[in-house]
Design goal:
Elements: E1 3-8, H1 19-28, E2 31-36, H2 44-53, E3 57-61, H3 75-85, E4 89-98, H4 105-122, E5 126-131, H5 134-148, E6 153-155, H6 162-170, E7 174-177, H7 187-195, E8 201-203, H8 226-237, H9 241-256
Parallel strand pairs: 1-2, 2-3, 3-4, 4-5, 5-6, 6-7, 7-8
Bound molecules: nickel (II) ion.
Length: about 260
């Protein structure tokens, strides 16, 4: 069985002391590939060094909506240059809108749009963070599609209800579920995980955050725990774990053009 953890932050300090052991654990758990997210371009060199040490890591580059203090006039250009400079870059992200307590909505929208354009020009998918902003996000994407044509992408760490899920499915997006789906109270997220078609679903940890059940006591999440997300989602959807692994791994491979051996079904 091969799994892909489509969203990790292994560059964070939480992994500095034992990254090799963490890698051993994900290999043992069947995680064959990982997509490393990026919250601001200043992280790029550390992420690149990590991706060089572990060949199964692909990378993204982008500016997160909660890091708008780092947005400058040349940031989009910088992201474009970094993405084009490194063959391991498979996506622009994470980018998006976070309107929870936000006082900078116009700036977030501007930065998001600029990075969407980078993705379009480079023909890369986007990794989208969307919190309390589904309506505005859908509107921006719809308008962008009308002018430039669609961009492929994933709604990462998805916490939306089925209605919002359908909106992003209709826009062509993949939907990625993190440990949040395993939380007892996450009934709407679980309903969303049941309705996503099998060719659009992805799984992730978003580590070091959000350890899934039954690892809630471990404050630090890690890629090996994507196994528990997979197991939970398989149960929810009434498919076997190996079947869900094949579906989600194929989907990740297709969206991010990952250099994985073809899957024998
Ligand atoms: Ni993230």
């Amino acid at each position: 069985m091969r799994l892909v953890d489509t969203h990790v932050h292994l560059n964070f300090d939480a992994f500095d002391a034992d990254r090799d052991e963490v890698a051993q654990a994900w290999r043992k758990a069947g995680v064959a590939h990982l997509v490393h997210s990026c919250v601001y371009p200043g992280e790029f060199e550390k992420i690149r060094a990590i991706a060089q040490r572990y060949p199964e890591i692909s990378m993204a580059v982008g500016l997160h909506p909660l890091d708008m203090d780092k947005w400058e006039s040349d940031t989009a250009e910088q992201i474009s240059r970094l993405a084009a400079s490194e063959p391991k870059v498979v996506a622009i992200g994470e980018i998006g809108l976070d309107f929870f307590k936000a006082k900078n909505k116009p700036m977030q929208k501007q930065a998001f749009l600029a990075q969407l354009e980078v993705a379009k020009v480079l023909n890369l998918p986007v990794i989208i963070h969307c919190r309390e902003a589904a309506e505005e996000m859908a509107q921006i994407l719809t308008e962008f599609w009308q002018v430039h044509g669609p961009v492929a992408g994933v709604m990462h760490c998805w916490t939306g209800n089925p209605k919002d899920t359908q909106i992003f499915l209709d826009l062509g997006f993949f939907i990625s579920f993190s440990g949040i789906v395993t939380f007892k109270s996450a009934l709407e997220v679980q309903a969303s995980a049941q309705m996503v078609p099998s060719d659009r679903i992805l799984i992730e940890t978003d580590c070091p955050f959000l350890s899934p059940v039954p690892k809630r006591k471990e404050k630090r999440n890690q890629p090996a725990f994507v196994y528990h997300v997979a197991e939970y989602v398989a149960n929810l959807r009434g498919v076997s774990l190996p079947e869900l692994a094949i579906q989600t791994t194929q989907n990740a491979q297709r969206l991010f053009q990952l250099p994985l051996e073809p899957i024998e079904v």
